[in-house]
Write a structure and sequence with these properties.
The complex is a heterodimer of chains A (474) and B (426). With 474 residues, chain A is mostly helical. Chain A contains 17 helices and no strands. The longest helix of chain A has 34 residues. Chain B is mostly helical and 426 residues long. The chains are: A mainly alpha (474), B mainly alpha (426). At the A-B interface, helix 8, helix 9 and helix 10 of A face helix 6, helix 8, helix 9, helix 10 and helix 16 of B.
Chain lengths: 474, 426
């Protein structure tokens, strides 16, 4: 990477940090007792996790008859939640893989937490198809293997099965990617610790010594995993979209679904990263590493992807009319003006209209505004999946089958409960691993630290000849 | 050498390319059927293809500026020049509009009032698919694109001449670029439906606009590589290194895969759901245009995927230019496949109706559809000649624009980053 940095770029690490300070700042939260905020958050999260376990137990014991699904509406909150969580699980790998390929330096501030978030979101997503099977203990039937159940094979023609492969592959590669990045940082933690803690981190860091050979292999592996993950980011939500789009259901069967789902997934994933980062940077005092520049960049991605899904929504709406196919036209008429009109309005307002505020720089750089906006987007993307699933199913081909669906407390409990699962895992993560990739953020210090670039720069290299003007020199 | 000179030799060469194109078009016109279907479809094909390349060049430029990309600065004059081709593009498209009003061509089924009156599906679309919207859409949309192309060009040159210490011009460039992106997103879809999707006027696919745009995008990258290699061979832009080429190569590689992803998604979903109204599009192409259909995938996916997979192939000029030529022709071929079958079908129907013995002719038309039709089943020499002509026009215009400003934009705040851009070692 070139060390020449344009004077127009803003620094990404503030506070005139040295390498040692970076290690201190990022590692220390894992080495001392948690603060009050963390404890409170953990109590809330674990209570919600209890709600999840209870609702799960209730569902398994009594069967999914305790949900309000019916013969017309076979997918309700369960699959909505599944798609929502999988979507959220896209930002991490996007940040770590695609932004690595694009050599975006701001990724280093948020990639670790985003990758962790990805894994936890995928774990939450995975719950729903399993529970939805009804007999969870037979879940292993979804794997194709020679069995004693007669010629009973999975249906290879079904996108639902492709989903099994896509998501398990995605989880595996994301986990490897995350762990690869963690190895040098675990070694840092190991070197700073004593006793049992040292033994644990020694085990997890695979005997990392920081030798040149280690770094070289680590770089190669990161690049290979980035290359593998890039098509995976696209493939996962593409295949989730196939769950709907391969059908002949008006409102589901539309060819734009694959790229549009991917854009929506990145959109919701970044919103969740914002939700987490805004809180994390505050509680762990990492504002100098996750700067307003980072937040602004992510808000731009949110604006971009929000507008992309906007193009897709309007494309679908227009083409449904253009198709001249009355069922398609009715499906969209129903979506906008039918009994679930409020969810369509919620989707449009949260996903397409509200991100437009991010055209204003002041809002993009406002932490409070960003936080509320990230919640809006999360709600909006949940609505989107609900719109696609419930409103479409509620109006069948046969008017006699028309129905309305509202969740029972069990379904609500399961959804709220996965939030508990997610935040419990995330909070534990902030205690055991550095939430910012120490090694990676150090790699950008000399090209993005505020002592080197930006208005307060004190170090100047004039070895790049004329035209290389640091903002600090004038 | 940063100031491009458009030599007399180059002008002669490009003018003779245009001459070849003109000759091909004249020959096509006079050897054509009664409706001049081959002539007009070739014209539509090349006019939309090159206008689209200009549009995606502007899109790439604005996207990179918005993303604060630094490396592309040394390449940006080329894209600015490409983007300005939108102006001749609009002129070319106006000829189609004149043809539409004058009834000179039958490219679009929906333009025929009699047919629409008897066709409930076309009647349902008539408030979108009509001459008025087609013309207004083209002028407003391409006009807006031209406005942005000119605005960005003007600011880019202003950045060059004034010593812009607090980057006020660049900040303006950022704003204009960002504003262009959503406008491009919405308007390109609408106009692609008009220009291209409406040829198969009963058929529809929500993916279509993004698919066509991806095709243009790859073509723009391929043309960029060709132009850069040519300029470098003349001694210009020595400052553009293998590293820049490598990055554009990566874009060509990545977007070839992205194009394939969109191709696959569209094809697979239509195949899987097997709804007659949708499968008809691919059925027609598979049955009657198999060479085009499979060739499309070989040229635009298999070739770039395997050739550009290796990193060092993206750094070798010969290999990269070779692949760029394949991919450029491949996407031109892709547009051929998007346009020709629908146009041919429409023309056969119109000819059948106008024939004295409607029944016999309709029978003959049905027969024709499954046999070889020169200029439709495969691109013939006349199509290649027409392409050469348009390519000559494109480069003539682009080179004339390149002379208007320095080839490198030293006033850009990312100029030094671009000069020192290194892809490897990592």
């Amino acid at each position: 990477m070139s060390a020449v940095v344009s004077p127009i770029r803003e620094p990404l690490i503030e506070g005139n940090k040295t390498y040692h300070q970076i290690t201190e700042d990022i590692c220390s939260p894992t080495e001392k007792a948690p603060g009050m905020a963390w404890v409170m958050a953990f109590l809330v999260a674990i209570s919600l996790l209890a709600v999840y376990i209870f609702s799960l137990g209730w569902t398994v014991w009594n069967g999914i008859g305790t949900w309000d699904l019916n013969r017309t509406i076979g997918w309700g909150w369960d699959i909505t939640n599944f798609v929502w969580w999988v979507g959220i699980g896209h930002a991490g790998t996007l940040i770590s893989a695609i932004l690595l390929l694009f050599r975006q330096k701001w990724r280093t501030g948020v990639n670790r937490a985003a990758e962790a978030m990805t894994i936890f979101a995928v774990v939450c997503a995975g719950q729903f198809p399993l529970i939805h099977m009804g007999r969870v203990w037979l879940a292993f039937f979804i794997f194709p293997y020679p069995n004693t159940r007669g010629p009973l094979w999975v249906n290879f023609n079904s996108p639902l099965l492709w989903d099994v492969f896509a998501i398990s592959t995605y989880l595996t590669v994301s986990l490897l990617f995350w762990y690869t990045g963690l190895v040098p940082d675990f070694a840092t933690l190991r070197d700073r610790s004593k006793g049992f803690r040292r033994k644990i981190y020694n085990l997890f860091s695979f005997g990392w010594t920081g030798a040149g050979k280690h770094w070289q292999r680590w770089e190669s592996l990161s690049l290979i995993l980035a290359g593998l993950s890039t098509p995976l980011v696209l493939s996962v939500h593409t295949i989730v979209s196939f769950d709907f789009a391969t059908s002949v259901i008006p409102g589901w069967h539309t060819t734009i679904f694959p790229p549009y789902f991917v854009a929506g997934a990145i959109f919701s994933g970044f919103a969740m990263v914002q939700t987490l980062m805004v809180i994390t940077r505050k509680i762990l005092k990492l504002q100098q590493y996750i700067t307003l520049e980072h937040i602004e960049s992510m808000n731009k991605v949110i604006l971009l992807t929000g507008t992309m899904v906007g193009v897709a929504y309007l494309t679908e709406l227009f083409i449904s009319w253009y198709s001249g196919y009355i069922y398609e036209q009715y499906a969209f008429y129903n979506r906008v003006l039918g009994p679930y009109w409020w969810s369509y309005v919620g989707m449009m307002a949260c996903n397409v209209i509200s991100p437009q505020f991010f055209w204003v720089k002041k809002y993009r750089r406002s932490v409070v505004f960003t936080f509320f906006m990230s919640i809006f987007v999360n709600i909006g993307m949940w609505f989107e999946r609900f719109v696609i699933i419930a409103t479409t199913l509620a109006r069948d081909y046969l008017p006699s089958s028309w129905s309305y669906y509202a969740p029972t407390w069990v379904e609500i409990g399961l959804f709220v409960g996965t939030l508990g699962l997610f935040f419990t895992l995330y909070l534990i993560f902030t205690r055991v691993a550095p939430v910012i990739a120490v090694a990676e953020i150090k790699s950008i210090l000399k090209s993005a630290g505020d002592q080197y670039v930006g208005p307060n720069a004190t170090h100047h290299h004039d070895d790049h000849g004329k035209g290389k003007v640091h903002a600090g020199t004038h | 050498m940063n100031q491009f000179t458009f030599t007399a030799k180059q002008k002669t060469f490009l003018l003779s390319m245009m001459g070849v194109g003109l000759l091909s078009m004249v020959l096509t016109f006079f050897t054509d059927d009664a409706l001049h279907t081959r002539f007009w479809s070739n014209y539509l094909h090349n006019a939309t293809f090159f206008t689209g390349v200009a549009f995606t060049s502007l899109f790439v430029l604005t996207a990179f500026i918005t993303a604060w990309s630094g490396w592309h600065v040394l390449v940006k004059r080329v894209w600015e020049a490409y983007a300005l081709f939108l102006i001749p593009g609009l002129v070319l498209l106006s000829v189609l509009i004149i043809g539409l009003y004058g009834g000179f061509h039958h490219l679009y089924h929906w333009a025929d009032a009699e047919v629409v009156a008897a066709d409930p599906i076309l009647k349902g679309k008539a408030s979108f698919l009509n001459k008025g919207w087609y013309s207004i859409g083209t002028f407003v949309v391409v006009g807006a694109w031209i406005f942005f192309a000119l605005k960005l060009r003007q600011l880019s040159i202003a950045e060059e001449t004034m010593q812009d210490a607090n980057f006020s011009v660049h900040k303006k460039i950022r704003v204009w670029s960002a504003v262009f992106l959503p406008i491009a997103g919405f308007s390109s879809a609408a106009i692609i439906w008009q220009w291209l999707m409406s040829i198969d006027s009963h058929w529809y696919s929500t993916m279509y606009a993004w698919y066509a745009t991806a095709s243009w995008f790859v073509s723009a990258m391929a043309l960029t590589i060709i132009t850069l290699a040519y300029l470098k061979s003349l001694g210009y832009l020595q400052i553009v290194s293998d590293h820049h080429l490598h990055d554009i190569g990566k874009f060509m590689f990545a977007f070839s895969i992205f194009w394939t992803y969109l191709w696959f998604s569209q094809y697979m979903l239509i195949w899987y759901a097997n709804v007659g109204e949708e499968t008809v599009y691919f059925q027609e192409r598979l049955d009657n245009y198999p060479v085009l259909f499979y060739g499309n995938l070989i040229l635009n996916f298999v070739a770039p995927f395997f050739i550009l997979m290796r990193n060092d192939n993206k750094r070798k000029y010969g290999t990269l230019v070779f692949t760029a030529i394949i991919v450029l022709l491949g996407h031109w071929w892709d547009f051929f496949l998007m346009i020709k079958p629908g146009v041919y079908h429409t023309a056969q129907e119109v000819l059948a109706h106008s024939a004295a013995h409607a029944d016999e002719a309709a029978h003959a038309a049905g027969h024709h559809a499954s046999s070889f039709a020169a200029g439709f089943t495969l691109p013939g020499l006349l199509e290649i000649g027409t392409f050469i002509g348009f390519l000559g026009l494109f480069f003539f215009f682009v080179f004339s624009r390149l002379t208007k400003a320095s080839l490198v934009s030293t006033g850009d705040p990312y100029y030094e980053e671009s000069v020192h851009h290194r892809v490897w070692p990592f």
